[in-house]
Amino acid sequence: MEFDYSLDFKNIDFRSSPELYRVGKGEQGVLLVEPYKSEILPYWRFKTPEIANESSEKIYELFLNYLEQDDFVGADMARKFLQMGYTRSRRYANHKSGRKYKANPQEEGSQEAEKQARKEVLPLDIDPIKAESAAIFKEKWTLAKTNEKYLQLMKKHRQMYEQVK
To answer: How many degrees, rounded to 5, is the angle at CA 155 between CA 149 and CA 158?
Structure first.
């Protein structure tokens, strides 16, 4: 099922209401789902490989702690932060400004204008330091998304809460 952006995220505690959580695709909801966002976000950094290593280690530790507590939502949120550490540092590795497109596709209005904006990719300007940060996050993200207990808890969560009715 799709991630449900219509929920009242400011007033939902997903730890006490895991039935409302949807995995969605990729990093969907990573900056919305509480209390996990507030627990994980302070550790999310990737400016240098040293910072990325410390950050990814701490977030992976949180991931394992959530698994120990059979807290799938927390584990999935930690996995999303690891994934976002990879994708954001990779973007900065490729584009010093962090902007991939000449114009922001999401601000273009029509679907046709958005498609056109996505064709106008800025030239690559590789930053090896950010690339190393990305590799550090990718390693932890891969460990998280392939963790056997995580996969079992995801299957259970989807069976309990995400079946199409």
So the answer is: 140
Number of other residues whose CB lies within 10 A of the CB of residue 54: 14
| pTM, rounded to two decimals | 0.86
b/e sequence 75-84, b meaning 16+ C-beta within 10 Å:
bbbbbbbbbb
Is 80 exceeded by the pLDDT of residue 113? no
Contacts of 51 (CB under 8 A, 6+ apart): 45, 133
Other Cβ atoms less than 10 A from the Cβ of 156: the count is 12
Share of the chain above pLDDT 70, in %: 89
- Of 89, 76, 91, residue with least CA distance to 26: 76
124: phi > 0 → left, psi -120 to 50 → alpha, else beta; which? Answer: beta
Percentages of the chain per state (helix, strand, coil), in multiples of 5: 60, 0, 40
Q: Supply 130's token pair.
A: 């950010």
Is residue 37 within 8 Å of 31, Cβ to Cβ? yes
